Amino acid sequence: MQLDLFFLPNFALNNLTPYFMKLKKVLFGLCLVIFLSGEAKCEESSSNGQRTTLTQEKSNKNRPGLPSKVYVECIYDEGYLSFSFPGGIVAYTVRVYDDTDEWYGYVCVDEPMVQVPLFTGVYSVECIANDGRVFKGTITF
Fold first, then answer.
1. Which residues contact 56 (CB under 8 A, 6 or more apart)?
2. Which residues contact 141 (CB under 8 A, 6 or more apart)?
3. What's the rounded Cα separation, in Å, for the pair 91 and 107?
4. What is the pTM assigned to this prediction?
5. Domain count for the chain
6. Element (H, E) at 41
7. Which residue, 78, 86, 101, 129, is most buried by CB atoms nearer than 10 A?
8. Closest by alpha carbon to 56, among 29, 88, 32?
9. Do 107 and 121 fall into the same domain?
10. Are residue 37 and residue 70 in the same domain, yes or no?
11. Which pLDDT value is given to residue 83?
């Protein structure tokens, strides 16, 4: 006598299908709630300010090469600019400018944030590091 092994599981699954469908919906809803609550926490903890990446200016513009792996993160939030300091850099002279306005400041590892005037529009940001490297980018205020 040969026992059909596929008959028993199919029979059992056919009777439990409505419960599995309900369980699948509940699990999907639970996963969705967990995912959305994680997204809300990330949004609460992140800055509302503008973020930009300042890239290193090449010393020889006629010679092509790989882009630099060293960059500076610049964040503007409520009248303050803050900067990241990649390895070996301890201070920047900061210049924020456009066609009509220009502002200079100084930041260091101990005080990476500086208060700036209330700008509006798109401005260029230039950071000259203590070792002479120049980082440039644009930011919208």
1. 68, 70, 71, 133, 134, 135
2. 50, 76, 118, 119, 120, 121, 122, 123
3. 6
4. 0.60
5. 2
6. helix 7-45
7. 129
8. 88
9. yes
10. no
11. 92
- CA torsion through residues 36, 40, 45, 51, sign: positive
Amino acid at 31: C
Do the beta carbons of residue 121 and residue 140 sit within 8 Å? yes
Same domain, 104 and 124: yes
Tell me the C-alpha distance between 129 and 107, whole Å: 10
Domain of residue 13: give its range. Answer: 1-46
- 65: tokens are 């090469």
What does the pLDDT profile of the chain (141 residues) look like in tens digits?
455 555 545 555 556 667 767 777 777 666 555 666 554 433 333 446 778 888 887 665 666 665 667 889 999 888 899 999 988 899 999 999 999 989 999 999 999 999 998 888 899 999 999 999 899 999 888
The vertex-131 CA angle with 73 and 101, nearest 5°, equals 55
Q: Which amino acid is at 131?
A: D
Considering just the CA atoms, what is the radius of gyration of the chain in Å? 28
Instruction: For residue 133, give the CATH number of its domain.
Output: 2.60.40
C-alpha to C-alpha distance for 34 and 89, rounded to whole angstroms: 40
